[in-house]
Amino acid sequence: MRTLSPGRGTRLAGAVLAAAALTATAVPAAVAAPDSADRTPAYLNARLPVEKRVADLLGRMTLAEKVGQMTQAERGAIDADQAQITNLALGSVLSGGGSTPASNTPEAWADMIDGYQSRALATRLHIPLLYGIDSVHGDNNLVGATIFPHNVGLGATRDPQLVGQVEHITATETRATGPQWVFAPCVCVTRDERWGRTYESFGEDPKLVQQMETAIDGFQGTSTKDLDDPDHVLATAKHYAGDGDTTFGTSTSGTYTIDQGVTITDWQHFAQTDLAPYVTAVRQHDVGSIMPSFSSVQWTDRPGSTPVKMSANKELLTDVLKQKIGFDGFLISDWEAIHQLPGDYATQVRTAVNAGMDMFMEPNSAPQFEQALTAEVQAGRVSMARINDAVSRILKAKFELGLFEHPYTDRSNMGTIGSAQHRAVARQAVSESQVLLKNSNNALPLKASQKIYVAGVNANDLGNQAGGWTVTWQGQSGNTSFPGTTILQGIQQVAKNVTYSADASAPTAGADVGVVVIGETPYAEGVGDVGNGHTLNISDADRANIDKVCGAIKTCVVLDVAGRPQIVTDELGKMDAFVMSWLPGSEGAGVADVLFGKKAFTGKLPVTWPRSEAQEPINVGDRDYDPLFPYGYGLTTRR
């Protein structure tokens, strides 16, 4: 998953956002006859095995057409000149975070993507386009989609069946608007909560991550034949491998401190912690694509080892992943990831292709990539065997997705987007994700009859509640970007006597219970790294709210809306109850469900909670393990 890097928003700002008003639902007649001398080519025969169709089509393709299939451009770079799709024979287009049609509606998405698809079908062999998007907690680029808790909250549920259901809904809403491919799930194992992507991980224990890989089945279905259904998409396990285990201070990407850094490790630890989820993704869930990480690996058990970027690591991409583990899908590079490799652009392209990369996310330089790769093949520095292997893997996915038979958007599920049924599942995920960390004197559950005083900006801010990767790459504070229910609104739906004061300036007299909602504001990727303008410490405003409300009202409950644990050690004694709410998404009423006992607290910590920022990295199994709350901790209540 992931697609964006610093500056991507500004690069897309000037793009023309014109949606093609195309609503065709059948393959043009020309698709039935790509070559006048061959009226029924084998690759168009849906009754033939995929392997035979791939071999037949590959045998008809020129080098230029093969290189085109290996190329992915960002919609902002091709929208104003869509003939590029045809002229470059592009195999794929993506939307990065916040890259949407001018009218961010389901219909506009489908029209836009169908317009691009018509350009792909205008090529000589009529090979359909594969469209990718970051649906990392719902179809989160689309306004009106169901926005689920981020993965760290789903990990807290310890409910693999629910996670599969969440991603099936995400797949249904995503494919109904056009994209057939998602850059999700992140199966990284987060080992340092200073990482700005902590919330994208299911947790710090690889066993927990492996249990939650039912997400892949939710996206893809449980057999290959499910992929061409209108409620499934191709999944991407990311970021292979070790991105959650990089060493703080090793990142060389801009001002990042840990994201895209170096995983300094021995083989045993790497295999047991960082690699294990990919073995499960491939062998148990048959994931269709994998995205190599921006990060590097440096071995501590190999004398003289130096950091090697994953995009250049032939040992791990080809020898281990494809050959030893048996991955038969395709590898998609991250956003301009190969630009971080040593050497000139031709060297970067050659290195990554020969390492095993199959498709290249070159958002703004697709023509240059195709030119460079073609030259490398013609010069003999990249073999045709490597090209044929990459293209075969990509075509296999397109055949399995049924794109040759149904290239245009099946809009039959469009009416389910953001439906009450889908939001009910999201609400369940929210309630199951809540982790009760303290509950003195049975402060929780609350009673609807109590006079409740609510304080804190995060009590009534959908943007903060959803976090990054929501409508835009970084997400944004406020209640105007997408529909949903805030935590405050959820409380008000149950209790009738509620006072709200964002800064706790309203009088507290007469209140039975104070509820203080603290937490973070949105961020994504390395922008959220601690040391890059962020800290695990709670804000001065949050501390002041806790001090005032908990000091004035007899019973005081604190909720933390954040993508990772925050340092509350000095404040914990002032609270009667403390709840980790994570980033719940659009359904804040799910928080109220457990606060008032409609549902029991059952969530367990998917990561260790540190006493101080200086304790990071801290993980279960460490020597001298002394956290504020251990991994797996979570109190329960009765309904």
TrEMBL record:
Domain Glycoside hydrolase family 3 N-terminal: 62-396
Gene3D superfamilies membership: Glycoside hydrolase family 3 C-terminal domain, Glycoside hydrolase, family 3, N-terminal domain
Keywords tagged on the record: Glycosidase, Hydrolase, Signal
EC number(s) reported in the record: 3.2.1.21
GO MF term list: beta-glucosidase activity
Signal peptide start and end residues: 1-32
A Pfam family of this chain: Glyco_hydro_3_C
SUPFAM superfamilies, A to Z: (Trans)glycosidases, Beta-D-glucan exohydrolase, C-terminal domain
Protein's name according to its UniProt entry: beta-glucosidase
